[in-house]
Predict the 3D structure of the following.
Amino acid sequence: MRARRAAPLKGTATIPGDKSISQRALILGALATGETRVSGLLESEDVKNTGQALTGFGAQVARTGPGTWRVRGTGVGNWHTLAAPLDFGNSGTGSRLVMGAMATTPITAVFTGDASLRSRPMARVVDPLKAFGVTYEGQGAKALMPLTLHGAANARAITTTITTASAQVKSALLLAALNAEGVSRITQTTLTRDHSEKMLKAFGAQIAVTPEGTGETIALTGRARLAGTEVEVPRDPSSAAFPLVAALIVPGSQIVLPAILLNPRRTGLLDTLLEMGAKIGIENRRTSGGEEIGDLVVSHSELRGVTVPAARAPSMIDEYPVLSVAAAFAKGKTTMLGLEELRVKESDRLAAVARGLEVNGVSIAIEGDDLMVEGMGPDGVPGGGTVTTHMDHRIAMSFLTMGMASQKPVTADDITMIATSFPEYQGLMTALGAAFEA
Ligand code: S3P
């Protein structure tokens, strides 16, 4: 699909539910006793694959209306062994969190996925889980899928420190700790998204978080009983990022994105764009489902290059591809520091972004884990390239965004993966005024 220069983007767009929170709502619902009712669930491929897997473990997962789902859980420790391998498609979050959730129940499951997921390291999750007594057979040193995981019987609580800046790793350990005897203490040396902690509390887990150096320690009491509850899923800031950046770079645009999740561990892109001079108003700040939300009012802006500190990376880890596109339309250089985690996403996003910018005439440099983008100004991005998306939804959407304001159209070689996180993307952007060609 190809995106070409758009007329000004105008209107109000309803962004779908947050992917991280949707995944967690289904998983915690399946671990709880009783009924969990979820509203605003993201109905994307990744989330559906998780729902399917949870059904295999013995939970009941049913759609009751648009975005509303009901989960009847089994209770912690009561999942059963599955007959067939679990295919998680493209979803790192779904597969890794479910690995944690089954790790302290003595059952076996085979995890697999598409070519992208089968190339992503699972060792970062299953190696720390060994402390609970799990064993596994994966492919090679990175424990690639297909991976067979044997949950531990009679697991005991652990005390551990994670230095990987990954919420998935942290969440997998927390979910495993739910069925381990005693209080597990999980320290993470950086602050990553805290949706698991918040939601565990809402489901009745005993959980306490205390600051610890640059990070924090989470104490979670095991042999937990979770009680089904209501979960209202806020709208995904990582999906909102695409129309947001599009409105900033397409001249004459003004759009409204209501009720977007503004959890401070997810707002690094907003902070960065504001520093770049973006006109983004945040209105009606309120809470919904225990999370901060607000309405974003976005107008076309003259952007300038900035330096993004490495410490901000966890709060905008999924937004670097689209930030790189915004940076191409800025005046001056943008430097993004400390991007090592980008190499292990749905694709090697550092390489995919760099290549995508280059084929569209934007100069870049990579030094170690840092990316530098030479801004070409609001009207200076040539475009005209075909971007290899490497089965990565965010690479596809980022470069389609570029095509909306570049001199020549930009082509994404494959858009099928957009359905993993944002099935409404094309319709929503078209309604705002974007122009796509097949
Ligand atoms: C997620 C955490 C991040 C993010 C992913 C969703 C989560 O991954 O990139 O899209 O829901 O916990 P890492 O934990 O690997 O950084």
